[in-house]
């Protein structure tokens, strides 16, 4: 792995205690209610357990928003209500749970007071989680599965944006206990390569676009949840979000190549399997929820995400071919990657090469190929920012 630590680049290292994500403006919530009441058979099942509540993105005093993630053992039914301010009570989002209890380790209340959030608290008599909002803040609710999570994205009250230097958020995929794909023959680990590429991209952006600011979601080999990654980009109001990965397949690969993905539904089996691997879930979970998530989260930024993806794909391929002339173009594609869900800015996921295709695996072991890929990615990001 590269030892480079960019001195002029802001490296943002996240922990499970403080990170974030949010929508751009008040919208209809993704899950307004669960229409079916539990059947008698359902009532006999074990209650779901709320095991933890994590708040992401609220670490900075000026955070643009925050993301609250409720994690469960089991899958509760729930309804969400958006309640206006009443008397001494602030505006609230109430997540009412059915067939659920909370674990002893879950705090009764967490005071936040940043990113549009005042606090998160448990309430009775019916089990519910209440998110108290700061004045003018808004939020929306959706869920992820395997494991089951209810996610509340909060946006603070809007402020006029001042003209500022563009901010690029680079997300090295995996890390910590989730190393991603590997090639033991060549000693390659996806999490290490993704971080190396992100550091080289940051270095190159500093050279070709010195006005740009760059942040990395991680700068060491640490665990970082999928929910936290785009959450930080929202909290710092990033202008683009690029999640960097390496591809792999359990089956023999006849050609490798580079692919850049945007968030959208797909029926492509290969894209579904790849999304399941990167999401840490099953193909059935991706297909079961993708239409709901993609429909509501791609609004307003899908066109720009496609433009960013095209610039990165074209430049990364061109630069990579200076080392591997036959590097395949797998194109700009659509898939249901959880890491992109909720991004308020143009957001893409790049599969920079195949760890399981020997010519690319061999090349990835060389600094010349890693640098060529990184320079191409940086050129693509710079090209997009200059045009927008």
Characterization of this structure:
The protein is of the alpha/beta class and about 400 residues long. It has two domains: about 10-15 and about 160-385, 3-Layer(aba) Sandwich (Aminopeptidase), CATH 3.40.630; about 40-155, Immunoglobulin-like. Helix content is about 25%, strand content about 30%. The protein is built from eight helices and 19 strands. It has a seven-stranded mixed beta sheet, sandwiched between helices. A five-stranded mixed beta sheet has the order 6-2-3-11-10. A five-stranded antiparallel beta sheet has the order 4-5-9-8-7, with no helix packed on it. β4 (about 75-85) and β5 form a beta hairpin. The protein is globular. Residues about 1-45 have low confidence and may be disordered.
